[in-house]
Automatic annotation (TrEMBL):
CDD domains: thiolase
Gene3D superfamilies found in the cross-reference section: 3.40.47.10
All residue ranges annotated as the Thiolase C-terminal domain in the record: 268-338
Domain of life (superkingdom): Bacteria
Species assigned in the record: Marinobacter segnicrescens
InterPro entries for this protein: Thiolase, Thiolase-like, Thiolase_C, Thiolase_N
Domain Thiolase N-terminal as annotated: residue spans: 7-259
Keyword terms: Acyltransferase, Transferase
GO molecular function: acetyl-CoA C-acyltransferase activity
Pfam families reported in the protein's UniProt record: Thiolase_C, Thiolase_N
Keyword Cell membrane attached: no
Similarity comment text for this entry: Belongs to the thiolase-like superfamily. Thiolase family.
Protein name per the record: Acetyl-CoA C-acetyltransferase
Length: 338
């Protein structure tokens, strides 16, 4: 048994850019590298004391291949002695990096570790990973396809299965999307994200240019009538549209995770601690329901009920995901993705 406690000391991120937008010129290794450098400089830690860097990345090919976490460490100018590893749990890759970091600290393998993630969907596009017969090869093997009778699909069509199973209407999806933008805009205007942001320019060759200060894609006002008139994307009579699905984005983030005793010894102030972490698998056809089981497991591990939690942050790949989550755990609107 160990009494070591993993804590988050600091956390930073780049602004989130649209595909082809404000961060599209950045090589993803440099994008993550700038994030690592800023985190280290801001926290004041000795970079030679970093035990590991763990980064999540989904599309690990082309510019994001060959262990992009290690390339980012070198890009950041950190000591060559600092190791790094890249992990892939698809949409949960960054979270998995943080989980590995925390578990490593609690096990005594690390005193100080960086966890985070990067994705440049401008540089490495999603379709390039899934095109049948593409140079990368088929995504699914014959045995897996046989097991699921050829029903495996991308997340877009799966979102419609989720909408059907949980009875989520088009009106609910659109209303949630509008609320999400309104909340994000209000938080941006209030300066809620300022302390998180890595100072970065749109042009990698012009470090003295104007810094990007806000996420790209947040809208102050959405025309509900126009949204209601949009065509569905994945099914003729479906409900998922471009307005109630997330944009394709570029960005990077990094957290400094440490043992509480080590952090206090080094004068680093813990900002949060890890209470419980869990993962779960589910039907790969509908895909999104795994977060429900993972949350049930985490609550049980922590000895808490859903009502005990003050705030929930749930993936918004599609508006149906947080709405499904809200139904499962009976979460009030003012506790969900505020």
């Amino acid at each position: 048994m160990t009494n070591r406690e993993a804590v988050i000391v600091d956390a930073v991120r780049t602004p989130v850019g649209r595909r082809g937008g404000i961060l599209s010129q950045w090589h993803p290794a440099d994008l993550l590298g700038c994030t690592l450098r800023y985190l280290v400089d801001r926290s004041g830690v000795d970079p030679s004391t970093i035990d590991d860097v763990i980064a999540g990345c989904v599309l690990q090919h082309d510019q994001q291949s060959s262990n992009i976490a290690r390339h980012a460490v070198l890009s950041a100018g950190l000591p060559e002695s600092v190791p790094a590893v890249t992990v892939d749990r698809q949409c949960g890759s960054g979270q998995q990096a943080v989980s590995f970091a925390a578990h490593g600290v609690m096990a005594g393998s690390y005193d100080l570790v960086i966890a985070g993630g990067v994705e440049s969907m401008s540089q490495v596009t999603m379709p390039s990973a899934f095109q049948p017969g593409a140079p990368l090869g088929p995504q699914y093997g014959p045995l897996e396809l046989e097991r699921y009778d050829g029903r495996l699909m991308a997340q877009g069509p799966s979102s419609e299965l989720m909408n059907d199973r949980f009875g989520i209407s088009r009106e609910e999806l659109d209303a949630y999307s509008v609320r999400s933008h309104e909340r994000a805009f209000a938080a941006t205007r209030a300066g809620a994200f300022v302390k998180q942001m890595v100072p970065i320019t749109a042009d990698p060759q012009d470090p003295n240019g104007p810094c990007i200060t806000a996420d790209e894609g947040i809208r102050e006002h959405l025309d509900t009538e126009k949204i209601a008139g949009l065509k569905t994307v994945f099914a003729k009579n479906g409900r998922t549209t471009a307005a109630n699905a997330s944009q394709v984005s570029d960005g990077a983030a990094a957290l400094l995770v440490a043992d509480r005793g080590y952090a206090e010894q080094k004068g680093l102030k813990p900002r949060a601690r890890f209470r419980a972490m869990s993962v779960a698998g589910a039907d790969p056809v509908i895909q999104f329901t795994a977060i429900l089981e993972a949350t049930h497991k985490a609550l049980k591990m922590a000895g808490l009920s859903a009502a005990d939690i003050d705030l929930y942050e749930v993936n918004e790949a599609f508006a149906g995901v947080p709405l499904m989550f809200q139904r499962e755990f009976d979460i009030p609107d003012d506790k969900l993705n505020v």
